[in-house]
Amino acid sequence: MKLIKDKEFLKNIAYQIDLLNTLGGGVSETYVDIKKYKKGAVIHVSAAGINPESFKVVLNNNQLTLFSVLRSKENPEMGAPMFNRTFMLPPQVDLGRIEAVQENGQLQVRLPYHEGTGQPREIEIKQL
Question: Domain count of the chain?
Fold first, then answer.
C-alpha cells in the first residue's frame, strides 16, 4: 500500500472529513436559554466546538436572528451553516438598546425593556 505524500492534500481532505462529520452530527447541539427579568430578557447561546466569534446577530425591525457559520481556514469563502434561530421580539423590548456580548465562551444577547414597561398607568378620559 502506497502512502499519500502530499501533505497539503492530506490537510485539505482532513478538513473536509471534519466538516462532513460536523454536518452529520459530530458536534453537540447549540444550547439556547432565555431568561426574563423585570427590566429585560437575556438570550444565552452556547455550542460546543463552535468559536463564539463565529456567531452573528442581526436585527431587522422586531425580528432578531442569531446564526453561526463554520468557515474553512484554507478557503474562507467556503462555509457551512451550524446554527440559525429567529426570534420575534415583543413590543416592550427597546430595539435601540439591544446588545450582544461574549462571556465565558457564551454569547449573550441582552434585550432591555422600555422604561416603565409593565407598570400600570391610568389613562385620563378627556371630555369633548
Answer: 1
